[in-house]
Amino acid sequence: RTLGELALRIAHARALYRPLGEGGPPAIAQLLEREGALGATARIRVTSADPTDERASCLRAWGDAYRAQGGRIDLTDPERTFRVVSGTGGGSTYVLLEQLRVVDRKALHARRPGSQAFRQPVTLSSRLARTLVNLAEAPVGGTLLDPFCGTGAIPREAGLLGHPVFVSDRSAKMLRGTLRNLAVAGITPELAGVADVSELPGLLGDRPRVSALVTDPPYGRASSTGGEGWRDLLSRLYTLVPAIVGAEGTCVMLLPLPDPDLPLPTGWRGRSLGLAERVHASLSRYVYRLEGPHHLPAPGRANVSAGLPGRAL
Fold this sequence. Notes:
Number of helices: 9
Mean pLDDT: 87
CATH class of the largest domain: Alpha Beta
Low-confidence stretches: 300-313
Shape: elongated
Order of helices and strands: HEHEHEEEHHEHEHEHEHEEE
């Protein structure tokens, strides 16, 4: 179950692997011989289109090593799959990996904007929405709020990961569209309402503060701000963040510049996580994150920008 949940969350990856060891070709052969002693069927893969790559010439020897202690090679339906990749030392140093789970990337692609029941000319992709949710680092079961829900891409990805979701928008039309798209995905938000930013505390009422606020706010270009400058809109949101999001939580936003350069809520930190996408010549979108006073980054996430599309996650 844990591997399945992890494979669902890191939807940009192709597979989950565990490292078995590192070294030159003889060391890899020894590792495979040890694994072959367990008797399972297996296939061994190398990733290289270069016929002069040393791994290609070693592949037969590594297969022989796996068979030496009773292992069997099966290229069609193996019980185990190994992959040999270049090691950190360069040269003839390699890492032997065992594939644990294949990630279903087709499911993410199937949720592309054009496939939604409710669509708008500019709709956030499921790929980028998933990235924003992941970068929020909300705990398992933590509630996520999207106060500019639009077509619902962010709450849909959060809901598919098992997070309870709160959704709101100043436009009744957009809220209805979000609810329609969420229903198609089998997701029922715990809270939904038409609300301006200033009305969010009243919408939440006496509910506990959310674990994360994740959103793609309007900039007044393809999405309306009601005549208000997007910086002013964001500034109003900032003042309410401590009342909406827990001190251990985060706010992850997609903005038209790396840093909005606005006064931060007391005790909160702001971090630009890098370029998310170039929309056209005059618009690029960046990920910006606010971190609560008690927020602790997830272990092993020193470079959170590595989660952006087009990079490894």
